[in-house]
Write the structure tokens for this entry.
Amino acid sequence: MQAKTWAVYMVRCANGALYTGITNRLKDRIADHNSGRGAKYTASFGPVKLVWHKKSRTRSSASKLEAKIKKFSRAEKSKLIDSFLPVPPIL
């Protein structure tokens, strides 16, 4: 049985707010947020754009990082987003 890879992620809502969450299916979760099936907050203030994510080996470690990020100030979250260099897709 293959182990699930978890991810902590941040999305920017249409109103400029940042939403932080965890998932083991990142692409599907972003689609959920944009279709209104995600969190109540993102359903109210969507659509959303993925601005940051980080893989985690376990749900526990993802949850701990999520909790830490949720305590960050907006400036700290912005700094984290600004330092994020996504890997370009392989052609």
Q: What stands out?
A: The chain has a mean pLDDT of 89. Helices lie at 26-35, 40-45, 59-70, 74-82.
